[in-house]
Amino acid sequence: MLRGIAQAVDKKTGKTAGELSLEASRESSRIDPLEVGHEMAGDVLDHIWQCIDKHKHIINEDEFTIVMVLADDPMLCNVMRRKFYAWPYLPKPRPRQSVFLYNRKRDDIQFLWALPAAEGMATLSSMTVVGEKWKRMKSWCDAFYNHTFHELIRKQSGTDLLSESEFLNVNREKLIQAGCQEVNSPRSEPLDFSKIDI
What we know:
Blueprint: H1 2-5, H2 17-26, H3 33-41, H4 44-55, E1 63-72, E2 80-87, E3 97-103, E4 108-115, H5 118-126, H6 135-146, H7 149-157, H8 164-170, H9 172-177
Antiparallel strand pairs: 1-2, 1-3, 3-4
Helix pairs in contact: 5-6, 6-7
């Protein structure tokens, strides 16, 4: 069953994600989480540049963002996936997200932010004192809950890139003319329990 679910194949071993997941679940030795983190971060920069190369010709802006999101696999409980994509604006912040800024003129990447899992965000934001290495991440978590996130990021990075909602509002007419129709969805109706038969 796992072979049918997992289509991703490891280039080094030729095994599917399902096969690797099954092997990992049988592993009995203790694994150092720091070592796992270093291994996961080892090729992030390569994936960021691949994402930039794919989007350079699609996004016609001097600066754009590259987003990496960590996501659990819905079928394989011990598999974590990294998803990379690009936007012409600052994306909405969310847990387990890292964002980088690409500057076309300088052809370089600037790190903007990294948010931990939701529990970590809440914990960091509720703490009054944190260690030196956590202060920057705490400021991001505080700004997330205070709804001042993009203002803080612009101040820290020196970019004037618009947020998603600002970008869509500024370019609204262009997007509608390009074929993106404005949709007015009807309000949802509450469930009528009288129509349920048992």
